[in-house]
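Here is one chain, start to finish.
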Amino acid sequence: MEIRQYKAEGERISLLGFGCMRLPQKGEKAEEIDEEKGQAMVDYALGHGVTYFDTAYPYHNGASELFIGKALSRYPRESFQLASKLPTWLLKSAADVDRYLNEQLEKCQTAYFDYYLVHSLAEGTYPKVAAYNVYERLREKQREGKIRRLGFSFHDKPALLEKIVGDYDWDFAQIQLNYLDWELLAAKEQYEILTRAGLPVIIMEPVRGGALATLSAKSAEIFKKANADVSVASWALRYAASLPNVLTVLSGMTTLEQVRDNVRTMSDFRPLTEGERLVIDEALAAYRQSATIPCTACRYCMDCPSGVDIPKVFAIYNRYMIDEFAFGFQGDYRILGEEKQAHNCAGCGVCAGHCPQAIPIPEWMKKVTALAEELRNKTTGARPLKPLGLD
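Its structure:
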């Protein structure tokens, strides 16, 4: 297993991190974790060099922390790093910071978290950090020995990330990064902000919820032609892991075979070559073209007089049409920003006149708007497995 080190003096961490958000289930309910299968996955991972395990308060409706605490309890505490996250959106008072942390420590059967994150910082949650003295209280818990490293996970725009990094002295940060979101959701800018600040980066969603494990049939064919001996998902993991400031790459695994495949990918690790990056570019282009809207993101349609980010709207729509992940669509659409969404289209048609693919853009904007409204109505009042935008 490839090993990375936390800064010059820090502990050694496996390049593959075990994400505990998509554990095997016995039934439809998220909290019904199949502990036998899950334990086998954890045992295999630890037996093959994986040291980093990542959970959070809402995962599996609260059952993830209970499971991983039990699963790891049979191993020496110093043989692994355990990470969990403060549910920022649930905070109602400063006392809640201590209460949630203590509850999580108990659920995970541990005296301390190696890595503890303020969960899902975004425009709507970040004000709570100052309002409830979250950073200061957690630093005090760090001095007490209940936390070893203090960081945050992030789901928003680069400008806010710059502010968060400037406001507090964090130990590390966790962002969503993959070869689709490198440009689509400004993952490149986020990675560069953290790197300039000297913060080690933990990667979440390297395979984008499984979407990059399959892509389209044409994309998969391109990857298999380049190397028939590796999985499509392995290309996405290596993309994230090839960045020099990445500490570990989290993979939310559901089956033992996924664990085995990811371990193979991160053992005897090889960063991507320039030739392999071109393969990814080709497969990504095929993925975009195979979706419902044949947009190539050439941006000849831009700038839109009404402020719509046409290529990004199409990319988010196309992703949903392939993976049909409603909460993924809603989270991406929210981060895009209301001012750039499809409903702002005035139907002027200027964009369509510039499109090399002859896409009737205003007509598609109506369809995207209708889809966004349909999904919003379907999920209103429903309880998702996790709050929108959470990692």
